[in-house]
User: Fold this.
Amino acid sequence: MPAADQTTPHEIRGKAAGTAPVPLSVLDLVTVGAGRTATDALQTSVNLSRLAENRGYHRYWVAEHHSMPGVASSSPAVILAHLAAHTNRIRLGSGGVMLPNHAPLVIAEQFGTLEAMAPGRVDLGLGRAPGTDGATAAALRRTERLNEGADDFPEQLAELTRFLDDDFPDGHRYRRIHAVPGPIQATSPGGVQSPNRPPIWLLGSSGFSARLAGALGLPFAFAHHFSAQNTIPALDLYRESFQPSALMSAPYALIGVSALATDDEKEARRQVMAAALNMVRLRTGRPGLVPTPEEAEAYEFSPMERDFIDSWNANVIHGTADEVRSGLDDLQKRTGADELMITGNAHSGDVRLRSYELIADAYELPKTEVKAQG
Assistant:
């Protein structure tokens, strides 16, 4: 596998800390547990972003989801603005924004604003799935023609890129439309514009985005945490398709990994079963708040649900800190991933925070106290 070389921008390439084989990052679903509020979940996100920054995690992404009571991340740009006010240096981004749900100009404006708030540390990760069910996607997009949005993804991506770079050609119907904050401010009388522009990442769980990211010379993020069987084929396709671009001369791929570390193995199994029950309910059209471990222990799983649980948990790295470190090391070796983005799902925010702390300790990530802005 060709490794990302020194000409790849540092904000994409990252740098491994401690004894970790590659940079470690965080994917936050802003999960809401039973008996907790969205306010509680968002406060956990603030605390987790600070922990991640202080312990050497490279980036912190928030994923767009809709109509799911247990996931309070329907507005990534709003959450990222809040996190920017409470952190100083960790990269913040979307993992991702679902492009077909939005007008490209709106995304360019939102992430231009985020870039102005947190110069040089904003990532724009884009996906083409709706991040929800079909009915909710129709409400978001004001259309029943849902496949059209996914099929038009390359064209939407090209339009968004032109808005970010403010380089529509003469004669284009959008030539005189500008995403602000953005490059147009540098060309206005007396204008001074930041040299930074959020790098675009493509996200995927199959081969479509892998091939497109490679063809465009963009970094690629693969959702191993819910599409593990496609991970290696998609990464191989990305690397084989890669064409050097102005942004990168070599491919760079991260994978999302579901991992949870606790102080003992038994507790890890309890927490993972609660998260798995949440997935059972979601996959059977009964989305709700993340249940407690006690509720999961009392739940009577059907044989079909048990099969799903076994399959789902097989791809969740969990246990003590040493066990999780070993699992992450093995996964990185098998996939050749350039970065591991860890999502730790549990009912309790304290359990999630403890998991990231334990993983940081297992890899001897440095402790750096950074004064929060907010």
